[in-house]
Design a protein that fits this description.
Radius of gyration: 20 Å
Order of helices and strands: HEEEEEEEHEEHEEEEE
Shape: globular
Number of strands: 14
Number of helices: 3
Distance between the termini: 41 Å
Helix content: under 10%
Structural class: mainly beta
């Protein structure tokens, strides 16, 4: 069986990319010429639900150094629903919060010649509540109750909910563009991807009423790459290019709609062979207020 480590790795590429920071409501200001894109979501609701669907279809993998080995088609998908509740703020910054993982399900399908294979995976955190705490420099996560087993401990170490801040703290004008550093891009890749380079560019396109709420439409362009040394000595190289839009409510500061499309590509270098892969990918995500169903 061909090595699927890189392709399966990207099940969690965008898992937790869209969790914007909150600031106290006293800092929120809007006037006719500029808008502030950061605000406290929890001023308008007690529990924020995020839904994320990341999928790749009609992906192709083949050995560059062995064209006769044929091509392998790969399809994959990851669907997540998680709630955030009971955050604590100090001096305008979130210092602790809670999450409940309602669902986290991955699926992949690929062929080897005329034979097809499928893999289905459920996160070990599915159905559990977690506590996130900030020690002044970084976030750590633990189960809300009970001790985590080995699989859960590994999953908790990979959480990247608060790795970045997406929007500027200052007010910005329509048409203004801002760029995030490779450290920000790393939030779109798993932590074990190293040497991440690239950029994420945002542009505030317009402000208008959408479904009864004053909302900002923000263009997003992601171009990032990184590499990884695998346990078997192989080297994985990966690249993601995504473009799309975010709709952000300026009343609740929920990201009511995120839609991104693009391509994931890369290679695995092992024993002198280069295994190339490429796949169209898309991301659909949203936030909403819900009651306590936990």
């Amino acid at each position: 069986m061909k090595n699927l480590s890189v392709t399966l790795l990207f099940f969690s590429v965008l898992s937790f990319a869209f969790s914007g920071g909150e600031t106290p409501s006293s800092q929120i200001e809007v006037n006719e010429n500029t808008v502030r894109l950061t605000g406290n979501k929890f001023d308008s609701g007690d529990r924020v639900r995020r839904m994320i669907h990341f999928e790749g279809t009609n992906g192709v993998s083949s050995f560059e150094t062995d064209p006769g080995s044929g091509k392998m088609r790969i399809d994959f998908s990851r669907f997540q629903i998680f709630d955030e509740f009971d955050p604590v703020f100090e001096s305008g910054r979130k210092v602790s919060t809670h999450y409940h993982m309602r669902d986290d399900y991955s699926w992949a399908r690929w062929n080897e010649g005329s034979e097809f294979f499928e893999v289905h995976t459920t996160s070990p955190l599915r159905g559990y509540s977690m506590v996130g705490e900030h020690d002044g420099s970084s976030w750590t996560y633990s189960l809300e109750s009970g001790s985590a087993n080995a699989a859960q401990s590994e999953a908790l170490r990979e959480i990247i909910y608060h790795l970045r801040s997406m929007y500027p703290e200052a007010e910005i004008k329509i048409g203004e563009t801002w760029v995030r550093s490779p450290l920000f891009v790393n939030a779109y890749l798993r932590r074990d991807i190293k040497n991440v380079v690239g950029s994420v560019e945002f542009t505030l396109l317009k402000v208008e009423n959408i479904e009864g709420e004053r909302s900002a439409t923000i263009k997003v362009e992601i171009d990032s790459s990184g590499d990884q040394m695998n346990e078997d000595g192989s080297i994985s190289l990966s690249k993601i290019v995504l473009k799309g839009e975010i709709v952000l409510s300026l009343e609740t500061y929920l990201e009511t709609d995120i839609s991104l499309k693009g391509e994931m590509s890369g290679s695995i270098v092992r024993n002198g062979k280069v295994d190339l892969y490429t796949s169209p990918i898309k991301v659909a995500a949203s936030e909403s207020f819900v009651g306590d169903e936990h």
